[in-house]
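Troubleshooting log. The previous structure file for this entry was overwritten by mistake, so regenerating from the original sequence record. Sequence copied from the archived sheet and checked twice against the printout by T.R.
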Amino acid sequence: MYSAGPLRFVPGASRFIYWLFKRWLYRYVDHIHTPTQMIAEELRKHHYDAKLHAISNGYSPRFVPRQPRAAADIRPPYRVAASGRLSLEKSQITLIKAISLCRHGSDIELSICGTGPMRRYLQMRAKRLLNSPVRIGFQPNDRMPGLLRSQDLLVHASVVDIESLSVMEGIGSGVVPIIARSGLSAASQFALTDQSLFEARNAQQLADRIDWWLDHPMELVSWERKYARFAAQRYSVESSVRQFIEMERESIAEYESSH
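Regenerated output below.
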């Protein structure tokens, strides 16, 4: 409902939609796949009685880590990226403001990859606030693996997210993320250290996080490897498929035992 304009302010609208889908479909379903534990908790809160399986959708194996870097490789111009729909709930404006507040701001090349209704607004604000190079707009999907591997940091400022494929692709490419902490977003589950988190819409805190990573290149290259291993172990498509098959087998066994 967050991007539904005035409808998101209608009392009970979200609750009604949960009820409607349960009444129309999910009351007949015994097992439900959710991409994150946060969504499972939302369904449980709205009285969905089926067994819930929190299984990541996974990321494409095309997103592989770059070759390990040395601390000496972290030098200007620094490259910071964000990826996702250019819309209000993704809050890319927070990232633009943060770059303008960074001590390293003039040495940062910013790429915001995506399309959406906020594109012209973001381009206008970036032009006014930033003196360093900025790219905002669509990037072909086949170029994204290489683009991500060329970045020093990935920022995900969204305040609403069911899972966030862009963060999975980023950490799978060996890029350290900085992720907004929001009650409506599950993306913060990908953060392995507090330096990878900031409070949603807090541009100054995000700026501080960006500066910290760029000031600590040894920690940055160390965490790049940790994030790449974490992504491969937990969020690869292969891992997700194995868990999904287990859910299917459990459902089939229950059905056969009751008929």
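The longest strand covers residues 78-83. Archived copy saved in two places this time.
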